[in-house]
Amino acid sequence: MVQSPFKIVAIEDWPSNQRMLLDTLGNDYNIRVAATGVLGLRLIQDDPPDLIFLKNRLQDMLGFEIIRNLRSCIKLQDIPVILLTESSMLEDHLIDWQIDNIDYIFEPINKIVVLSRVKTQLELRSVQNKLKNQIWFYQMEKMDSIRKLVSGIAHELNNPLGYVYSNINGLKQYHQDIFNILESAERMIESFSEGCRDLNAYKQLKNDLYFDFIKQDLINIVDESREGVERISNIVKKLCDFSRFEKEAVHLHDIESGIDVVLDVYQNELQKKATIIKNYNGISPIYCVGDQINQVFTNLLINAAQAIEEHGTITINTGYWGNDWLWVEIVDDGIGIPEEIKSKIFDPFFSTKPVGQGVGLGLALAYKIVKDHKGFINVFSLPGKGAKFQVYLPVNTTPNLI
């Protein structure tokens, strides 16, 4: 019989139950058994499984303590748990029971019930994974279409911008030449027509039409027009950089420069809600899909801005965690994330926004991209005091994306 690719961690301290679980599940699934909660958590963190079979009353800790520990870590919080418990203990922890992805089996343990619950949970997880992948591919195709549209518009703007910029430079030079000719002609007229009535009328006309002001103002108008065209050209260039889409192309990407591009593209949307503070520590480029990583920080920054009700602060910090990880931290002083929804914010289609103001895919997409790059995201928040999203990416690992 071919063993299922699903991995299970069973945390159970009774030897008889350990043997029963290994006999019942060992032929069909890749199962590891831990006799203590501490060892079980270590197994889960080292190699996250697809399902956790957990006895609630262990010698070193309660199962509900382990569940709380798992739910506090983003990369582990969506793993389904089958809890082996006494009915009385379940009632004692009824509030904790509101956590998603938990099933239960009452003691004493039954082989048929175990097989049934394990099969159901893993089938459900398989369906959820397929749905997430479908959402992912849909979003990437949508992003691809948007990028191509933006890229096309940007390139269409480049040619007329070039004409306008060239003409403005020419206009400034012509303006200077024309006024040089006028000044030269005026000097000649004055040298031959001292006291002439027409000369006095000419000077009066210059005063009436504010000639000196017009002369200077034309220079200012041309300079301001050129500055405006340069700003538009810079925006178009950044749109081209942002919309460059190399599908699944892994290459060296400068994380901090990528964030700067995102900040430039979304400057108006972000700065009207927050002052942006950057504390970069000069992290080196890493191998990744650069446009996808840019999308992660786009979604996190927009989410941070939307969490600020009036005007606040968004702080971006970067650094290293040991030798193997880099991190980017986005901190806002917005409304924060209520504890009861913190475990759901990366779920596809989960949104706290009013209907029509978001479909709840931004954070789900960010989580998926980071996970596919073998990284993870941590979230810290206190309601009313803002939120902190920490993105961790491996430094020395090249993602093998499909």
Structure in words:
There is one protein chain. With 402 residues, the protein is α/β, with parallel strands linked by helices. The chain has three domains: 7-109, Response regulator (Rossmann fold), CATH 3.40.50.2300; 146-243; 251-394, Histidine kinase-like ATPase, C-terminal domain (Heat Shock Protein 90). The chain has eleven helices and twelve strands. The protein has helices at 15-25, 37-46, 63-71, 87-92, 111-192, 197-208, 211-243, 255-265, 267-271, 290-306, 362-372; strands at 7-11, 30-34, 51-55, 81-85, 102-106, 251-253, 274-279, 286-288, 312-321, 325-332, 376-381, 387-394. The strands form three sheets. It has a five-stranded parallel sheet. Helix 7 crosses helix 8 and helix 10 packs antiparallel against helix 11. The chain is elongated and about 120 Å long. Residues 354-359 have low confidence and may be disordered. Its EC number is 2.7.13.3. It catalyses: ATP + protein L-histidine = ADP + protein N-phospho-L-histidine. InterPro entries: CheY-like_superfamily, HATPase_C_sf, HATPase_dom, His_kinase_dom, HisK_dim/P_dom, HisK_dim/P_sf, Sig_transdc_His_kin-like_C, Sig_transdc_resp-reg_receiver. It is an enzyme of class 2 (transferase). Residues 152-397 form the Histidine kinase domain.
